[in-house]
Amino acid sequence: MSETISKMKSTNKIFLAALVVITILFFNSAYLTENKTNFSPGKLNYAVNSFASYDFKQLRDTVYTNKDHFIEVNLITQQATLYSRDGSEFHFPVSSGTKRVEKGMETSSGLFAIQWKAKKQYSVQFDSTVMLNWMGFNNGIGFHALQGKSYYKYLGKKNVSHGCVRLSSEDAQIVYEKVERGTPVLVHKGNNAITIAFTSEGESYNQYSYSETYKRLKERYQKLYDGDYLITSNEKILIDEKNIYSSGLPIGNAELIPAKQNLKPTTLWVYKDKPEEQRLAEIFSGKEKSDFTLNPFLDSRN
User: Fold this and answer.
1) I want to staple 133 with a disulfide (CB 3.0 to 4.6 A). Which of 103, 118, 172, 191 is the partner?
2) Cβ atoms of residues 168 and 155 within 8 Å
3) Per-residue pLDDT of the chain (302 residues; tens, 9 = 90+)
4) DSSP state for residue 106 in the 8-state scheme
5) In what order do the strands lie in the sheet with 184-188?
């Protein structure tokens, strides 16, 4: 008799527990049905980030300098720019190297740094030619002016030097006074996959040896080419004379960068009232955002 009563009590407990579960599920279902509009992206003032279909062919990797200036030389246009930390820019025409002249060589593209300076330097290779305001950056290659002005007619128009980057005496004086050892020099033909930026107070930067920096840049370029640059963590790398040897660092090939880059799910949905500049900045930052995501499994690869 007691065994029968015990079984009945156990059965009643199971029945009551099942009833409680069914009741909870019923009321939750009713609540979700009545309030399903609360989860609408439109209701929450969210929209698909317009930059999900942005043309990222202009995306570039970035390295940083704590110097007050850096130089960029475009070998195609034969123009150079001295960028300053205060935001000012000094543009000047140049004439780079060419194989067309006897014993001449093309000025190499790459990421370099000013290695040494001299107010007056003599070229042993070319009959002790006097080079004024010498600023060497790639072994025996550097910026400099020449005596006289006969070469001025080629500046900004034609590459006629034996390998160095010539500039006028006036411009050479200005640049010489501003740059220092370690000032970065970016030389390219318009297809560089990297740019230079100045460091900012409060930001974190890492500096590596030459070989490690070389390796990491190659890996980052590959992420650019594969479309995975914005979904990976890209630290801010610091460059100067300590990790840029005279042979320089690679600058990648921008022609290999696809128009589409994979985006993190949290950058696909943004507040409608966010300006486009902010939407794009969040994508470029590569950081996870706390913004609402409609589908946590959504991936722009699909």
Assistant:
1) 172
2) yes
3) 555 545 455 555 555 555 555 554 444 444 444 444 444 444 545 555 555 667 889 999 999 999 999 999 999 999 999 999 999 999 999 999 999 988 889 999 999 999 999 999 887 665 568 999 999 999 989 999 999 999 999 999 999 998 999 999 999 999 999 999 999 999 999 999 999 999 999 999 999 999 999 999 999 999 999 999 988 878 999 999 999 999 999 999 999 999 988 877 665 555 556 676 666 666 666 544 433 333 333 333 33
4) P
5) 89-93, 79-84, 69-74, 184-188, 110-113
Residue 162 per-residue DSSP state = S
**Does 117 reside within a domain?**
yes
Number of domains forming the structure of the chain: 1
Residue 281: inside a domain: no
Contact 277, 55 (CB under 8 A): no
Residue 31 burial by Cβ neighbours in a 10 Å radius (0-12, 13-18, 19+): exposed
Report helix, strand or coil for 137.
Answer: strand
Where do we find the tokens 């740094």? 113
Task: Give the Cα-Cα-Cα angle 241, 243, 249 (nearest 5 degrees).
Answer: 100
Closest CA to 125 of 79, 93, 162, 97: 162
Helix (H) or strand (E) holding 283: helix 276-285
Cβ atoms of residues 246 and 115 within 8 Å: yes
Q: Is residue 121 part of a domain?
A: yes
Q: Is the Cα torsion angle 148, 178, 138, 116 positive or negative in sign?
A: positive
What three-state secondary structure class fits 264?
A: coil
Q: For residue 156, what is the domain's CATH number?
A: 2.40.440.10
DSSP string of 171-228, one letter each residue: HHHHHHHH--TT-EEEEESS--SEEEEE--TT---B---HHHHHHHHHHHHHHHHHT-
Asked whether residue 35 is assigned to any structural domain, the reply reads no
CA distance 267 to 54: 13
